[in-house]
Amino acid sequence: MSAPAIHARGVRVAYSGGEGEVLALDGIDLDVARGEFVCLLGPSGCGKSTFLNAVAGFVRPTAGSVFASGREALSPGPDRAMVFQEYALFPWMTVEENVAFGLATKGVPREAAGRVVSEWLEKLHLAGFGGRYPKDLSGGMRQRVAIARVLAIDPEILLLDEPFGALDALTRRNLQDELLRIWAGTGKTVLFVTHGIEESVYLADRVVVMTYRPGTVKEVVPVALPRPRDPSSPEFNAVARRVSELVMVEQARQEEDELREA
Amino acid sequence: MRRHLASLLRALAVPLAALLAWDLACRAGLFSPLILPSPGQVLRRLVAYGSPLIPYDPAQGSYLAWLASGELWADAAGSLYRVVLGFVLGAGLALPLGLLMGAKSVVYELLNPLLQVLRPIPPIAFIPLAILWFGLGNPPAFFLIALGAFFPVLVNTVTGVRNVDEIYLRAARNLGANEITVFRRVMLPGAMPYVLAGMRVGIGIAFIVVIVAEMTAVNHGLGYRILEAREYFWSDKIIAGMISIGLIGLAIDGLMGRVNARLLRWHRGIEG
User: What ipTM goes with this model?
Assistant: First the structure.
């Protein structure tokens, strides 16, 4: 067995908020193997995005450590590329320039970068849109550009923070299939944050269900179903029900909390 | 086509009516021509203001130079020269300083108090000091115009840099960008809509300041000319000069609008 792509031990993240300290994450232990597709699932406020940010190097754990590709994730690095829910495309750059951004920072010569860019635009069905600005694209197409942008720098680990949350159901399924196809083709490690039960079971090798405040790993549910998965099959629904039972308890706790605060 | 014509007519209706009322009032003898000359008289004066003073003489130089030898062109060129140079000085200082203040909070904390104290002082209030420091002529005008353009550009640039969405900075760092790249390719273009808005305001103020400066410190330019005309009770020339000032201001603002639209093609809801 080779070393895991992501190796987290005892990760604790505390924020000093208005009313003292808020414990976002506590005692997270998680290993993600190379080439594995893992979904982090939980209600909002369970710290799943915080954990993703810790892996990305945007957030430093208060205690514990996160190793990614064998090195401690102390700052952001192009080996762990992030796709944001809000796309985060640079609006002043064309599609092409956005996708080329990471290559330019790496110092890849313009011509070679151009080839990589058009290759990824092609793969994500964006050929012919290279000269457009993000404002002229639909949400689904923007997220395709964001995915092309991170794949262009060929990261070992893909981090996705509710990437399809803002899209309509049909576009979302389309992009999920696209992502699975790319994942199968490139063998990248994927850590995918979502609050969609069906989405997590549709995509992941393992679903990590998290508890609400502080965020801990409640249970890891393996999804041993062959792909492509059929969300209407009994096997799929059995797994989804199991995941649902786990996550709904946390959802209820979150709602209680919200009512108490209101 | 017909809709275009209709909206053009609507746009022209009120100005034409005002012009007509002005003309009728003058014809009816409501005002002394010394106080309010008729539109026709102003127009004649404007043409004379822009026309060469002496007949064309090939020995004196080219025909084009002769054509532009009227007082108006020299005045307008002088005013424009002062506006452009003063603006370039003021904006040229404000832009890097604003970027630095926006990006580095230490610089902001150090400089902001002094700038906040200086900012409410209208550039015009600096006229006596400017004359004392720089004498008469172009130098005090450059100083005052630069001062007028400086603050709007500075304030907008600082705001622009500080308002660049954190997520773009994260995305850039995540894609391996170092601080210089983040600054050059994310903060700078992200702040551009604010910077350009500040420049548009700044050049507008520069244009106000140049007229005032020419009325006090410079013996040349459009501002000087209309003040001079008052000494001779040439109200038609005063108004002709004002019209020239208005047209030049309109042209400058239109040009800035075009530049904005060109540079901000990527921006949502921008209009030319």
Answer: 0.90
